Description:
Structural class: alpha/beta
Amino acid sequence: GAPTTILDIADGTPLLVDGSAGQVIPHPAPEAIARATQAAPTITIARRIPVYANVGSLDEAQRAGDADGIGLLRSEFLFLQRATTPSEDEQAEQYAAILRTMGERPVIIRTLDIGADKPLPFLPMPPEPNPQLGVRGIRLCLQQPDLFRTQLRALLRASTAGTLKIMLPMVTCASEVAQSRAVLDALAVEMGVAAPPLGAMIEVPMAALAARELAEVCDFFSLGTNDLMQFLLAADRENAGVGALYAQEHPAVWSLIGQVIAAAHEAKIPVGVCGEWGAEGVKLARLVELGIDSASVAVPAVQRVRELFAA
């Protein structure tokens, strides 16, 4: 949401960036720096909140050694920028390597989250006028059963290497989870392995509104606050023109998130956050107050977020 004049600031200029207040101060005075370094929030809690890492490759997973696990592995790293579909063997090898990296710590792998907004050379798709709201995520996987089954088989093969959970992206309704679980369970029986827990990204407003119904068919939830916010506010988070709207913390947003957390806990399933809010101290404090069970953040933020918590 910064104005274009920020691009006029010379390289090497000292900046004080206050993400909570939305301020960027060039050449900050020493007293301003002192105030900022003392202003980091501390969240006092009576329970331990696991801090997981969001990763998009084996290399990133290997750099996440201090995390309590992986809360989001973006599996599309295996599919993007290549001319052919990754084989079941290739996928299974990569997933297993990442699981082994974490040992007994949990690894949540998100199934393929691509569509017309992130096209694949080997999967031609017709252009869509609004690809963010089109055939993507679980919608695409259910329309491409061979692609989906191959990925699920690879995940099941890798599951013996660690503690795997599978997460479905862009879920709108319980029937999408039910269909996916039917495929996963059938493959698990066929392969003679146990089906891992299956959960849903809550990033579509309809999924948040139908959280109680979804909780009946899910083993866990993960709040994708980035997409949830932009869909809820009809404001592109990468568009500076509506950045101020995206930054608003409207009470209705918190009410909806509170409903999702309450629905998960009523169904006795955990709910984490894997969007940017998990790394923002003030927002994370509010999420903890509402009962969030875990936070998953970018690898460089893991230690900083862990330090927010005071026993």
